[in-house]
Each structure stands twice: as C-alpha cells, then as structure tokens.
Amino acid sequence: MIEIYLLEHLLAFNEYGTLSAAAEHLNIAQPSLSRSMQKLEGILNVTLFERQKNRIILNETGKLAAEYARRILDMESEMERHIRAFDRSQHTLTIGSCAPGPLMVLLPKAAGSFSDMTVSSAIDTEDNLIKGLRNSEYNIIILSKPLEHEDIYCKKYCTEQLYLSVTPFHPAASYQKVSFADMDGQNFIMYAHVGFWEDIVREKMPHAKFFKQEDMEAVGELAHFSDLPSFASDITLKTMESRHNNRIHIPFSDSESLAAYYLVCDLRSKTKFNSLFRAL
Amino acid sequence: MIEIYLLEHLLAFNEYGTLSAAAEHLNIAQPSLSRSMQKLEGILNVTLFERQKNRIILNETGKLAAEYARRILDMESEMERHIRAFDRSQHTLTIGSCAPGPLMVLLPKAAGSFSDMTVSSAIDTEDNLIKGLRNSEYNIIILSKPLEHEDIYCKKYCTEQLYLSVTPFHPAASYQKVSFADMDGQNFIMYAHVGFWEDIVREKMPHAKFFKQEDMEAVGELAHFSDLPSFASDITLKTMESRHNNRIHIPFSDSESLAAYYLVCDLRSKTKFNSLFRAL
DNA sequence: ATCACTTACGGGTGACGTAAAAATC
DNA sequence: GATTTTTACGTCACCCGTAAGTGAT
Q1: Is the model's pTM score more than 0.85?
Q2: Which nucleotides of D are covered by protein (CB under 7 A)?
C-alpha cells in the first residue's frame, strides 16, 4: 500500500515543479524527496517521471497519480474534519430557544442530566430554530407554538407571563394590571436578546422606544438607577431575585403577554433526552 | 496526517470485531493493533472506542471513522489499479481489425514504428471495434467501410481480393474466375478468425459448410493434405508463401469479394501515430 | 559557480514483536 | 484455563539528514 506521506510528497512536487522547491515547502531535505518518488515508482512498478540528467518531470502516468493523490488527501482532510466535528456534536447538547425565559429554567436541569456533555444555548427566530433542528445545529429547541411533524417530538413545557417593571413613582405603579395600549409611546429599557418578545412588544406598542442592552447586567443596573420602565416575567422574577430592587411588577393583561413554550426535538434522538424530559 | 496502515488496521478491527482476530488477519501481533487504535485516537484527538476491561467496541464516532477508512482505502486500490492500467496502455498499441488480412501488413510496420511499445491486435466485429475505439480498448481499428465523425480520423488503407484455393484436381481449377454461386453447397476449410469475411461467404453461399480451424497452421496442413477447397487473398498469397503448395488460386468475381480497408483512430491521438501512417 | 538530481552513509523515530499483567467468561 | 486488552521493553526497519558526485545552465 502507498502510505499517505508519499502522496503528500508527490503532490508537493506536482505543485512546485522541482524536487528542491517541493522539499523546501515540505520541510524535508531534497534527497528524501528524491527517494520518495523512487519509492512510489517502485511500489506501483511504473515510471512516473521523465528523467533528464538534472531535471525530473511528471509523465502522463505521473500526472494521473498526482490527481489521485489530490483526491485521496482531500478525502483524508475531510475525514479528520468530519470526525472531529461529529465527536464534538456527540458531546455537546445545543439548545435553541425563541426566548430566554425557558432557558433559565431548562439549562440548569440539562447541565444536571447531561453532566458529561457541554451544554450550549442560543436565542434564535422560530424559523431558524426549526431549520437548525433539521440540520442538527440544534439538538433541542423551544418554540412558542407546537410543531407537529411525523419525525418530530413536541411537548408542552411551561408558560411565561410578561410583567411591566416600574419604579414606585411611575403612574402605573398602583395598577393591578396594565395593557400594552396603556404603555404605548413610552421608553423602555430592554434586554437585547429577548427573542420573540421583541416582536410582540414592538407590534403591540408601535410608538414605544426600546433601549436595547446587550448585557443582562446592564439592564439591571439601568433599571436600578433610572426611572425608565422595563420588562420582567414570572420566570425572571423567580430566577433573578435582584430584579425586585425598588421596582413594582405589574402583569400585562393582553393575551399575547402570556406565552406557552414547547420543547421540540428530533424523534430519533428523543430517547437520548428522556432523562431530561422526565426531570421536568 | 493519518497514515494508510492505521486505516487498514481500523478497518480490519471493524471487520473482525476483536483486536486479536483482526491482528491475526493482518499478520501482526495483537499489541501492535492495540497501539494503532490508540494512535488513531491520539491523532484525531477523539474517542473511537467504548472500552470495557477486556473488550473494545467502536462507538458512533469510530464507526464513522471506519466508514471513511473504507472509502479512502478503496480509492487507494483504485488508484493503484488505474495507474498500472494506464501505464500499460501508455506502452501498448492495440490494433483491432475486421479481418486478418490488413493486420498481416500493418503489424510488422507498427512494430517497427513503435519499437518501445507492445503491439497487440485482435479481430472483432465492426460494431465492437467502433465501441472499443471510443473507450480506448483499441488505439487503431481497421474497418471495411469509412467512418465519418468529427472526433475521428479515417484514412483509406488498402484492398483485399478474395481467392478460391483448390487442388489442381478440383473442377474449378481451370477457371479464370469463379463466383460464389458456382461454389455454393461445397465444403470449405476456413480459418476461424476471418472477421467480416465469414459474414460474406455465409451470405453468398448459404448452402456451403465451413470447417473452421482455430489454428492458422491447421488450415495450411488440412489444405495441404485434403482436396477440400479453402480461401486465400492477394494479401495472404503475398505474405504467406507456403499457401501456394499444390494449390491453384482463382479470384472470385463477385463485387463483395473485393474489400476496401480503412484505418481509423481517435483524432486526439492521431499525432502519436503519424510516423506509422506516413510509413504506409 | 550555481542549480538540480542521484547515490552513499549514518542516525533516530517509531512500528513491531515478545513478555507479562489484569480482567472476564 | 482460555480469551481479550493493555502496558512495558527491546529490536529493527525505514525515513530523514548530511555529504559527495554528476551533469546542465
């Protein structure tokens, strides 16, 4: 059998035209390369070069050999790349969600159920989530609507109620409930990665402005030191105690302010996640 | 890079299920194979096996690796096979003909023009000749009709006149000319590989019987020691003097008994054969 | 003289074999 | 006890580098 290093040497010679130049690029001595080419000819029992006294050129057979060398080396590279990627995917659980709320609940449990795996997560649009599930970029996705399909497992997970978060001095502070219409036109502090919530508040409060903060900490800081209203939810109020500071939280009354979440995964991989699903 | 021997080892393990069995078939010691598998994992920086105390099994990543190993080794085998075949074809000139006559003239000249190449020849049907030229099984073919095509070079080569060969005691021995109809119904000795001539004599003498001889020598022997008529041509009479022994040769009068031959080759390879074509 | 290739020779890596240990059946 | 895998250790092959030689530019 022809070992890979011989194919690499052949390919380098094909690329650089002389043994010396190719040897230079391969970081080996030139006589080594000379011997490699002779060895190749010996293994194949075929002449690959036209040899002049101080010049060596691939003949037609040699060019064919170089072509095969290229293909084989390409396939080896692909093998290494693909196997490493596959191994990564075997040890990584990627969860995509249409909103951060359900991740706050799910991620700790996932980390517990799959302690040997790296759990990563992302907020994405529902369309991208579904696409990503199909091409294995996501292992589990969380949608705000159920997804019915023969190859898909889908299970209702939890709900999330949106709250308005204001200082005690805000006019709405004494309300029991508040509607989007009540707050339209005001300026809000908002976390940048709220997923589908952004679509909802922009649609329901078309005249409002939203000061988006990339950093979750920044939202807390700004809310603490400014009078601007912001958002919260039953989930964030439970998981992030700090958000209560000096703020009054009033549930929105509109039906859109109550979201239902659905856990979705590929039916083939459902068994892998059963331990997690049962723990919910 | 992963050397080929590692892929061979992996594939053998995949096939035989245990290191010991695979090592046996590879004709290496079993610890060597154990180390090869560890080395593979090291190069890829990936776990390929589920290891129990005295058992080792490919995991999903390992199965994927074995699949790639199979593909790469298959491609290597194909490379070796193809290159050796190509090299052979580079040193072999294969001439196919619809009849043996023109080969008798052409082969010596081809051997002279291409002294560094092996010249081989075959008699075949015209359909097979044309197919064989297209897929490079033949480099040059000789047809009884011209072949017009944009990628094809075609040149009139020579003619061949068919003769009847009889003993002086045969009724036809005194004829100046003889027609196929005159001889229909008689028994002939015939060389088995006369190509398209067989179609012609069978068609023109539907009631004749032909005793086909695989061996060219056998035709001469039988003709010498029997009274049965046989065939000759202006070409065979010129190139094989022995055929004259005790025989009278009378030309057939039918138009079909005069064949015209055409040299045909691929237009791309015409330059390679120019020296031969000019020598004609 | 410089460049390009080949041959000759010595060195070090690493692939292999043998031996032995540990674990399972 | 038989089988299977892993670790340890010594050996030898072979791949590489250096040096030297030949021929061409």
Answers
A1: no
A2: 3-8, 15-20, 22-24
